[in-house]
Amino acid sequence: MNRLILGDNLEILKSIDSESVDLIYIDPPFFSNRTYEVIWGDRGEVRSFEDRFSGGIDHYIAWLKERVLEMYRVLKPTGSMFVHCDWHANAFWV
Questions:
Q1: What is the per-residue burial (b if ≥16 Cβ within 10 Å, else e) of 79-90?
Q2: What phi-psi label fits residue 41: left (phi over 0), alpha (psi between -120 and 50 degrees) or beta?
Q3: Are 75 and 18 in contact (CB under 8 A)?
Q4: Where are the beta strands (DSSP E) in the chain?
Q5: 85 bridge partner residues
Q6: Closest by alpha carbon to 75, among 38, 23, 31, 35?
């Protein structure tokens, strides 16, 4: 109850009971084909991540769909799911 989980959600989702979650928020990669660098703190610590999928949009959609289906499985019928996406791939969800 009242857990916040950070990381790749697929394996965690598989261990959660069906229809047991009230709220899901995800902030997946946007399929922007960019490398992002962020500077944290006073010492200029750089953290970076890549938002690239070598298999193109089809690979990205398959990667995301697998996770969204697991999220839907664990979501209660009265639950809510929020997916943060942008213009790079949001039209491909249909």
A1: eeeeeebeebbe
A2: left
A3: no
A4: 21-26, 34-40, 45-51, 75-83
A5: none
A6: 23
CA–CA dist 39, 86 (Å, integer): 23
43-60 tens-digit pLDDT: 666 677 777 778 888 888
- pTM over cut 0.85: no
Per the structure block, which two tokens stand in for 15? Answer: 């261990």
The dihedral of CA 87, 50, 63, 29: what is its sign? negative
DSSP β-ladder status, 21-26 and 75-83: parallel
- Amino acid (one-letter) located at 62: A
* Contacts of the segment 9-17: beta carbons below 8 A, 24+ positions apart: 9/67, 9/70, 9/71, 10/66, 10/67, 10/70, 13/67, 13/70, 13/71, 13/73, 13/74, 14/70, 16/74, 17/74
